[in-house]
């Protein structure tokens, strides 16, 4: 996993276009009284991209926690005020993401996520003030003036796009959503809107990886039963099962008809990598929320 993760970072770690140089990650975490000296660097987001989605012309991002306005413990690109962060800082962070995605900040849409499979179709004139009150875990859209987003802090974000129709989807798949096969449900919904699974491009973003996804035997058994493949459970160093969520999601995408060469894995473990990612398992209530978002494309 280490080698493939490194390869993914070399191809997907995108520095801001408007900035000539980026200070080292160590400099990004200077004491906050020194932040005024490096405002440009700190307030430029560092995002991960899917090479396949980018090649197909879809604006998207798996935002890291770097490059925002929030203060510790939510430093710095946090997209949730309900965790205790200053709403003004979160609003400024949304503006940063909006500039990166080239949409209006109120058109970055996400839901009140509930670890289910409910999917919503988003279209103008919807705004974030409306959709963030809707319960659900996936958004689809075709209108290029909006971005479909999900917020995560260990669960898996999946961004999907159909180059033929221009439709996109943003999916939040925690262990409960994975057990219920939310990816397959979303692909069925896209079929209802005229999409074909073999046209779809899917990118599975950073989440809690096998190295850190230790579960009880009951959860491990439920995920094993939900998986189209069998080698998804591994014995951890403490003698408890570790689940390979990424492998399950990959198999579910294949089962739903997505072609193998149309699936990207934008790797990173949210628990292991505290410099780049928020993690609820690692930090509990002191954890911020990451954003993954994608914009439909005109066809």
What's the gist of this structure?
This protein is of the alpha+beta class and about 300 residues long.
Describe this structure in words.
The protein has 299 residues and is of the alpha+beta class. The chain has one domain: CNF1/YfiH-like putative cysteine hydrolases, CATH 3.60.140. It has eleven helices and 14 strands. The chain has helices at 2-12, 25-28, 39-42, 51-55, 87-101, 128-131, 175-179, 182-192, 217-226, 245-255, 280-283; strands spanning 13-14, 47-48, 60-63, 108-109, 119-122, 138-141, 147-152, 156-161, 168-173, 201-204, 233-235, 241-243, 263-265, 290-294. A six-stranded mixed sheet has the order 1-2-3-14-7-4. It is globular, with a radius of gyration of 18 Å.
Give structural attributes.
single chain, 299 residues, alpha+beta, six-stranded mixed sheet, 11 helices, globular, disordered N terminus
The CATH architecture assignment turns out to be 4-Layer Sandwich
| Helix-strand string | HEHHEHEHEEHEEEEHHEHEEHEHE
What is the fold-level CATH name, i.e. the topology? Answer: CNF1/YfiH-like putative cysteine hydrolases
The CATH first-level class comes to Alpha Beta
Number of strands: 14
Task: Write the SSE topology.
Blueprint: H1 2-12, E1 13-14, H2 25-28, H3 39-42, E2 47-48, H4 51-55, E3 60-63, H5 87-101, E4 108-109, E5 119-122, H6 128-131, E6 138-141, E7 147-152, E8 156-161, E9 168-173, H7 175-179, H8 182-192, E10 201-204, H9 217-226, E11 233-235, E12 241-243, H10 245-255, E13 263-265, H11 280-283, E14 290-294
Parallel strand pairs: 4-7, 5-6, 10-13
Antiparallel strand pairs: 1-2, 2-3, 3-14, 6-9, 7-14, 8-9, 8-10, 11-12
